Amino acid sequence: MGIERYSISMYFAHILMAAARRLTLDEEVLLKEAGISRKRLDNLHLRITPDQFSRLMQAVWRLSDDEFFGAGSQRCPKGCFAIMAKQVIHSHNLHSVYYKLSHFYNVMNDSLHLELKVVGDEAMFSMALSDPSLDPEYLLRGFLLLLWHRFPSWLIGQRITLKRVTFDHPEPVHSAEYRLMFPCPIHFDQPETCLVFDARILTAPLVQTAETLAYHLQRAPVDWFTRPAYYPVYTRRVLDHLENIGDLAKATIQSTASELHLTERTLRRKLLAEGSKFQKLKDGVRRDMAIHYLSQTSMSINQTSQQLGFSDPSAFTRAFRQWTGELPRTYRDAALNRK
């Protein structure tokens, strides 16, 4: 499960190659560098590793010298993100990060307009393309919104919990993948493309430094497509255990502590010091596994409920609706219709 959870739908490689085709790049060179065969590329039901997708994106960036894949009204030369990142790393808090990030791209490139708004207790970071027709498969909008969430989260050392995400385009055929990218209610055909989160986190200070940023940029973009690396040590160890355990339903803090060669009391204390709780971590893994299982069609909703350790299907239904804003049946039917 751990490997599958962090795999990426071939659909994203397919639409990235479509962008490369519009840029008249050498497709064989791109596929060879990514380690993807032409035959596999055309099978949209397959999945690839984050490393493969990262290498494909790096190759497109290198050959096109455009970090926007040709989907912007103006080319964004390779290295622009790194320049922006080296500016925002000296910010005092998350609010400053979003302000500087917006200012950089708004001045540097006419392809998009970024804006941070605070309305009541909600912060909204919106993005508008000057020419959306250049992004026909919504690749640039999906990638950049993911980046505007995960990179700032890494900077402050904690995931920015999203209340909802909106997109200014119709629901794409691969919308199930968006639930893995943004584990929150997602709405399409909205007035703007936007991240919405609790405004209180804007005061969170940065924990990363120029030194850690240098390593982060060396690994980019692979870390943006996997579980963010900012989890503290014991939180990460618990997550690694839960994601790879054979029977998540039977996982308890006692059994997990034993696997990690700790006492239950010690593990609770370590997690508490990191601002984590075992049940919250387990529920997060449950959420991602539920989304994965319901994106496939081989496991029924009842089987999924049992696999994840819910007492009955109705409890699972309530939890899934809270996680995604949808009923499991609705989500499963949409997956079936895409097959």
From TrEMBL:
Superkingdom to which the source organism belongs: Bacteria
Pfam families in the record: Arabinose_bd, HTH_18
Domain HTH araC/xylS-type: 236-334
One GO term describing the cellular component: cytosol
UniProt keyword list: DNA-binding, Transcription, Transcription regulation
KW Nucleus (keyword) present: no
GO molecular function, one term: DNA-binding transcription factor activity
Keyword Transcription regulation part of the UniProt annotation: yes
InterPro entries, A to Z: AraC-type_N (IPR032687), Homeodomain-like_sf (IPR009057), HTH_AraC (IPR018060)
Record PROSITE patterns: HTH_ARAC_FAMILY_2
Name of the protein in question: AraC family transcriptional regulator
Organism: Pseudomonas extremaustralis
Lineage, opening ranks: Bacteria, Pseudomonadati, Pseudomonadota, Gammaproteobacteria, Pseudomonadales
